[in-house]
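Quick one before lunch.
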Amino acid sequence: MVVSKTVSKIEKLIELDKKHYLHPTTVPKSFIENGPKIIFHEGQGIRVTDIKGDTYIDGASMLWNVNLGHGNKELAQAAYDQMSTLAYSSSFYGYSNEKAVRLAEKVVSIAPGDLSAIFFTSGGSESNDTAFKLARFYWDLKGRSTKKKILSISRSYHGATVSAGTATGIDAFHSFAGSRDADMVRAKSHLTNCELGDKNDPNYEGCIRDVIEKEGAETIAALILEPIQGAGGVHVSPDGYLKAVKALCEENDILMISDEVICGFGRTGKMFGVDNWDVVPDIMSVAKGITSGYAQLGGVLVNKEIRDTIVQYDQILGHGFTYSGHPTACSVGLKTIEILERDNILDNVNNMEKELKKGFDYLTDKHRYFTKSRAVGLLAGFELQQDRDLDVPFSESVKPASFVVDQCFKHKLILRAADFEKGKDIVAIAPPLIINKEEISEMINIIDAAVTKFNKTIK
Ligand code: PMP
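Model of the 4'-deoxy-4'-aminopyridoxal-5'-phosphate complex:
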């Protein structure tokens, strides 16, 4: 009786979901046909349990954000305490609140170089749109108002709002109808080996230097990139790349924006992605890990020069969100950073990176199609190729990454496929930063089983 009641409750929920809930980044027609893949109910540590009672390892930290894992009572308490005191207050017109001020000071204190002030938003897309606006505002104040364009890199993901969406260098995200930000230009990514315009390279055309020359530096306000591209397929910047890009930006008076929405707050084993290469960007956008996903918060850090310029003129910073500096979100942000530091989470990330790499070595030895594994901290991925020695991908119909991700799901491990680009069959892995050795082994065993199954289907 109890069981059938539960079943009918779930069925009812599925019907309501199909009827009334339009899901992001989902094919609506197939959603209506198949219903939700999973309805999450609760989470603890690296695991989430669905409404039917099945428990999964969250190998993706949901959307690369639940960095401290699920069910963290301290974060919940920080939200509760703040909500009970002052749930919300505006930050417009000179209003302020203590948690926003304290979080601003804290984030600036852990940020690299002279990044010295933060503008709060509610998420990553808003952060990047804000970063673009601040860059353009800065050049206006400097009397160089022709500097409007934003230069982004192929395979990047910067968000879903109009400007951040236009900057995004993954075509699959452009198919959704909408306007484009006209002041955007794109360069090829480092994967083409021509990022800085080596004229001997056959792919030279379209590289960063080339695009700057073509557009004219006087038209470009800023360049945006992720230190490690996440949604684009976990592409790690080669050593020297970010430094060279920064130098190129300086040479051309172009502000460098590091999109740290995924990399920030310990994901890569350093506090910020750029810290892996000792590069200090002019602007840095953050979100996701700043609250470990427990509250909606993002921010844009600017360097001292930009901050000092903005405050020097008697001109309104005519931009802001209702939830900029949300006290509850900022309270959760403060607690998140406190836990990161107090519990030496970065040490754990670096240790678990080693465990993950051991697992990857094992899988590389065992499976002929398993290749190109990489991990910087707990931002990791691997690829599947028909012939890894000759760098030959599977034919498009095979979809090995999606197959392996589906198999992992059957074995109760949630991962993410990045296979929207022809010839690139990538599986991304980004577990909560609190994961331990045994749990890494559990993940590796499931991936092992999934790839074994894939091998059998190919034979
Ligand atoms: N930048 C990067 C690097 C991201 O990965 C994302 C989200 N996946 C965003 C920006 C956009 O963030 P949001 O979805 O919070 O708007």
